[in-house]
Amino acid sequence: MASRLPGDFCAIDFGTSNSAVAIPRGERMGLVPLEGEHSTMPTAVFYFSEGRHDADGPPRAFGRAALKAYVEGSDGRLMRSMKSILGSSLIDQATDVGGGRGVKYFDMLAGYLKRLKRQAEAASGQGLQRVVLGRPVYFVDGEPARDAAAQASLEAAARAVGFAEVQFQFEPIAAAFDYEQQAEREERVLVADIGGGTSDFSLVRVGPQRRARLDRREDILANHGVHIAGTDFDRHIELAGILREFGYRALGPERPGQPAREVPSGIYFDLATWHLINTCYSPQRIAELRAMRGFYADLRQHQRLMTVLEERLGHELAGRAEQAKIAVAQGGDAEVDLGLIESGLALTITEAQALEALQGDVERIAAAGRETVAQAGLRPDDVDALYFTGGSTGLRLLAQRIAADYPSARQVTGDRFASVATGLGLHAARLFGATAG
């Protein structure tokens, strides 16, 4: 690599929950301050119901400002988990963002990428033409056509905001490149990159003699992943804990000659899924659910549900589930105050309850790690190091379960929110900086 990198490229970690960008800083790559001193920005957009369009579209706020607008009760719509739309039919559809405005999901995603690009260009002092984008091992599990379509949509969005050359790298492999900076000898490292949308594993050969190579294909021993991660954990905790107070899995009234039936559950699954919450607020659906009052033995549960729908509090409940997950991840119980729905309503989610709710997902994630090692033709004892990255690796019970399969591996925790962006930057420097003079 030349002494000074060309400045017209960047690397973007477009995450389900948070995003980051790396740009050339002289001889090295550095992360861009995206919001104040923060080098990561929540992958969130808030569309205000009022305000004039400009050249970029409807009035919006991004990242922490978007979350602040939502928390403070601004009139509009908050969008998160946009990455989960890739590979689905929603990407070509429009959605109501308030104020009589409709926005295509593709334009929503492209608008967020444009924000990242502009921040990076401001920090770089020049236009950026080339980009390395991170991608999960699988955008969509077990469906190659949809997976390819997801990458194609992300590439189209990147080109739409002005990138002339777009390259991709698997996110867990990028994390391995970040880990490699501290490797003192050749090792086989299993990267567990568990973020908001996917849990990805890569088994990579790293070492001081290998890190300068541009072509690392022979060092990528295996990669595998599942579309299960932090947002799924939030959903399960919300269903298992919070939404039971609103009628999820509750029984209806007993009728002569018939056993009590379980309350229909579709509305609860949609309320616990970020990008489907707003579909619960249509007048027709609210009318249908209001007419289902007789399905509930406990009418307080139905009233609470209707309060959530009529006052559009679904995202608030989802946010409280996420906070409960974070509290449990740090050890101990999580107290959830639901007084905004009903005065005095509160509940406690214990670590044991969280473990029960998440056990199936945790086991599937751990199995994906074992499958990765098996695909490489190796045994768990052949893994020298286990490198954790991604926001969801902060969930103690998950990290402990994964580590239990590799008792002889050294455990290392990277920057949970920036390891992938750092590794993508290293890859971009090798890829685009190789011809610099």
Notes on the structure:
This protein is α+β, with helices and mostly antiparallel strands. It has a domain at 9-170 and 420-432: Nucleotidyltransferase, domain 5, CATH 3.30.420. It has twelve helices and 18 strands. The chain has helices spanning 63-71, 105-124, 144-160, 171-180, 230-240, 266-271, 283-290, 299-310, 314-329, 351-375, 396-403, 419-432; strands at 9-14, 18-25, 28-31, 41-42, 44-48, 60-62, 76-80, 94-98, 101-104, 130-135, 165-170, 187-194, 199-206, 220-226, 334-337, 346-349, 385-389, 410-413. The strands form five sheets. Strands 1, 2, 3, 4, 10 and 11 form a six-stranded mixed sheet that branches. The model has no long low-confidence stretch (mean pLDDT 90).
What structural keywords apply?
22% strand; six-stranded mixed sheet; 12 helices; globular; 437 residues; Nucleotidyltransferase, domain 5; alpha+beta
